[in-house]
Amino acid sequence: MYLTKSDFNVARECPTKLYYKKLRYPSLLNENPFMEFLADGGYMVEKMAKLLFPDGREMECSGANPEEAFSAAKRILEEAENVVLFEPTILAGRLSARIDILEKRGNVVRLIEVKSTSVDTAADGPNPFRGSQGRIKADKRSYLEDVTFQVMVFQRAFPDWQISPVLCVVDKARLATENSTTDKFHLEKQGGSRMASDVVYTGIPEALGSEHVLALVDVATEVGQLLPEITTAADELASSVDSEAPVRIAPLLRKGCKDCEYRVARSEQRNGFRECWGPLAEVEPHVLDFYRLGNLRPPAGADPVTFLVNQGKAGLLDIPESWLSGSYAPRQKIQLEHTDPPQEYLNAQIREVLRSHQYPLHFIDFEASRAALPYHEGMHPYQQAAFQWSCHTIAEPGGEVIHTEWINVEQAFSNFQFARSLRDVIGTSGTVYVWSSFEQTALRDIREHLDAMGEDDPDLAQWLRDLGDRDNPRVVDMEKLTKDYHFHPRMGGRTSIKVVLPAVWENNSALWEHPLFAKYFRQDKNGKPIDPYKTLEAFSDSDSGEDFDLVQEGTAAVRAYQDLVFGRGAENDDARNALKQQLLQYCELDTAAMVMIWMHWTGSAQGGC
Ligand code: SF4
């Protein structure tokens, strides 16, 4: 058994995870491997990087057993004076590294790791991985550790060669041109399997030399600094897999366990979380479900979870009130006070607040993407492309609820059309309800695009400036209202609309019969109303019979949009319609959910105020 670089990366988060990974325990990350593959457009970044090396050779036996793959790479590296290899496997003892791009010139080797993370070479200075104090930036450290691991393995395998480590990342300072946009990268299924898709580039490869949007950053100094620590850690971890069965490194239970990928459904037989936590995994309500857990202040700066676990406790109600501090304390106190006995908390003051808002009331929600490779020429990597909005409007007290929506389905820059169509609906009067700061951030970004792209529209610029202003009383954040005035034990420590709606829906039967929302009413086998997000329809591609991935949250919406505009939707009308309908129903439910929650708060679903 080898310790691969992905094993190493996982074990750096938590060494115990290595055991579960090696034994393929059920993981939340495995739920949809194809979705993982599509995440953040990394496959396009990797393809672009490889296209910069036209003589590169893909190592075909990379998928075979590691020894064979290594022998093949070794033979080529030793025989060829100059060569570029893609994905060669390198072995040293129990360590294994598959290197994205290896460029050999004599006995000098450039080891290039490709990541879809970004730097801004114009703003970050010559060393984008270090902060102003010269320290390695915390959010870039894992990428540098990854390269360091590979350098260590390569050095052991080929001790006489000189290694120059490079991180190839997306450069936000560059602008996309015709040959460097998303639409030039296609996935082609191989052997009927999406997982075996090939990435096909349809632009002009020769043009990419000057038109790419990548930065190849020399990280030799950082690797030199990290090498002693990474060497020790890798050797220790390798010893835990150096036998027929891996050895489980004892868990350190802490607040980071909250987001552990092995915290799977209780029904799973092999359940990593349960094995780590033992009987404390079953405690309900659990300390890990506490709001802003990381902001608790236990004695001596200890990790709050470790502190409780050391006392044999893991209950949310075991958290002493004296640990609450700072601006999150009021919400934390509400959660503590209404969890046992479990009861809804709806502060009566919320009605006063809502009554002070001006009609018409607009409930809006946006879908937007920040893709590593821009959708359109003239855009920077990770610049926002807003592609859809939904709005429910109540013109006057007791008035009808009107739904409007807009979606872009063309391969065209859509930000300004997005803003203009929204302005036509919500204008300059009435209250605009949002959920979180996302919508205002998006509006401010579009405002900046107007200048950057030389779009001369002073009225639109002023409207965006006003609506994007954080202090504009016209815009009301319903998530903030939730934090201040509303709690239900079903929400636990979360306040996203995806948990607030089910809590409200389950407990407000008047909504089930409301003419606008009755279409979401379904019951499970026990007669309990199903979460409306779980009632959304999945559409199929009538050509292939393949189901489109259900859109129930924002990341899936971005993937569906990419598929609609640049993928299957661009090739086939049925797919285009199906993906469009899927996106429309999802965004509509987000703003319908806001209206339902507003009705619950005002009592208007029952014919109240
Ligand atoms: S539950 Fe905690 S200790 Fe166990 S694998 Fe997950 S993060 Fe590590």
Topology:
Blueprint lengths: L2 E2 H9 L2 H7 L10 H6 L3 H10 L5 E2 L7 H14 L2 E5 L2 E4 L2 E4 L2 E5 L2 E12 L21 H17 L4 E10 L13 E6 L2 E9 L6 H4 L2 E5 L1 H21 L31 H6 L26 H7 L18 H9 L7 E2 L2 H7 L5 E10 L13 E11 L6 E7 L7 H12 L4 E4 L3 H15 L5 H11 L6 E3 H8 E2 L9 H11 L1 H5 L40 H13 L1 H4 L1 H30 L7
Parallel strand pairs: 1-5, 2-3, 7-8, 13-16, 16-17
Antiparallel strand pairs: 3-6, 4-5, 6-7, 8-11, 9-10, 12-18, 13-14, 14-15
Helix pairs in contact: 1-2, 1-6, 6-8, 14-15, 17-21, 19-21
Iron/sulfur cluster binds next to helix 2 and helix 9.
What does this structure look like?
- With 609 residues, the protein is an alpha/beta fold.
- The protein folds into 4 domains: 3-239, Lambda Exonuclease, Chain A (Alpha-Beta Complex), CATH 3.90.320; 255-326, no CATH class; 350-478, no CATH class; 490-606, no CATH class.
- 37% of the residues lie in helices and 17% in strands.
- Strands 2-3-6-7-8-11 form a 6-stranded mixed beta sheet. Strands 15-14-13-16-17 form a 5-stranded mixed beta sheet, sandwiched between helices. The chain has a 3-stranded mixed beta sheet with strand order 1-5-4.
- Helix 1 (5-13) crosses helix 6 (141-157), helix 6 (141-157) crosses helix 8 and helix 14 runs antiparallel to helix 15 (458-468).
- The longest helix is centred in the last third of the chain and has 30 residues, at 573-602.
- The chain is globular.
- The mean pLDDT is 92.
- Iron/sulfur cluster (SF4) binds at residues 14, 16-17, 251, 253, 256-257, 260, 262, 272-273, 276.
